Amino acid sequence: MRKVCIIYTGGTIGMVPTEKGYAPEKGALNKELSNLKDLSAADMPEWDLVELDPLLDSSNITYRDWNKIGREIAGRYEDYDGFVVLHGTDTMAYTASALSFMLENLGKPVILTGSQIPLCQLRSDGKDNLITSMLIAADSVVPEVCLYFGNKLLRGNRSYKSSADRLIAFSSPNYPSLASAGIEISYNCNLILEKPDPEIRPFKLTEMRRTSIGVIKLHPGIHFDVFAPIVTKNLEGLVIEAFGTGNMPNYDEELPYVIRQAIENGTVVVVGTQCAQGKVRLGTYDVSSQLVEAGVVSAGNMTTEAIVTKLAYLLSLGLSRQEIHELMEGDLRGEMDDRM
Ligand code: ASP
């Protein structure tokens, strides 16, 4: 009998309406699950539920909660065929990305899912998301941290929340889905990462530490000086969401103060793109050439969610700035793999 562990962190799927809007409530998800007959169907795996305390709206998730989830998985790693992490949709792609880096040499599915409508409400999308995620977690085909939503299984560190109100709320524009659930669940096996041999590459959890990372999204006419207060010696990483292939204004003739100062302070400066699809190609235009000379990191086609969490992970490993620069520009967990 296959066995799946469900870890409930909070999020809409188990929320209840309150005077101040939807909020998670202890025990409410368990009550909904006990009413779901499908969970005891013959084809379903055995399952256990672990409810984290406190339950969170995912806007409140921090690296501490990522560590908690990581520890829950690592502590039960040998006891289950796979894991389903129930999570709020708002920051689900960040948690999926963070876990993909923290869970090294993963050999089992870790599937994040949730819903846009609570299980306790009419038309909830939670039931299918949960049941299909459990079947995928029990299948052992995908040894990756994934996000399942709206019939698609996406690589976690390639996904982002692209809709605030559609039931198909996540997209992965730079990598195709790993599986789709129609009448059957069909896996795109050639796109899935290889299962590591545990004798040679044993599973390992790396916990995150508190890091200071700033993200600046450019807009036309941006005044860089307003960001000056954030570029202190304490800023460890600065992510610039630039235009197109990594372009930014050079109307001041010189590199904006924030970037110059950050680099002088030893901050890792990463340039990503505001475009959902495609990649950063620094030096293609005059307006990005000075960034190359200054020594910024090119984020390739990583999502901002992957950039921020990968940076936090590499900083947590205590590596040098140069090592972090090199690893940021290479693929660790399929987050910038070009295979399509
Ligand atoms: N605010 C909720 C959360 O992220 C939204 C959701 O779960 O869909 O926890």
Order of helical and strand elements:
EEEHEHEHEEHEEEEEEEEEHEHEHH
Report the sheet-strand fraction. 15-25%
Bound molecules: aspartic acid
Distance between the termini: 34 Å
The CATH topology of the largest domain comes to Rossmann fold
Biggest sheet strand line-up: 4-1-5-7-8-9-12-13
Can you tell me about this structure?
This protein has 340 residues and is of the alpha/beta class. The chain has 2 domains: 3-205, Rossmann fold (3-Layer(aba) Sandwich); 213-328, Rossmann fold, CATH 3.40.50. The protein contains 8 helices and 18 strands. Strands 4-1-5-7-8-9-12-13 form an 8-stranded mixed beta sheet, sandwiched between helices. The chain has a 4-stranded parallel beta sheet with strand order 15-16-17-18, with helices on both faces. β12 and β13 form a beta hairpin. It is globular. The two termini are 34 Å apart. The model has no long low-confidence stretch (mean pLDDT 96). The site of aspartic acid (ASP) has 11 residues, from loops.
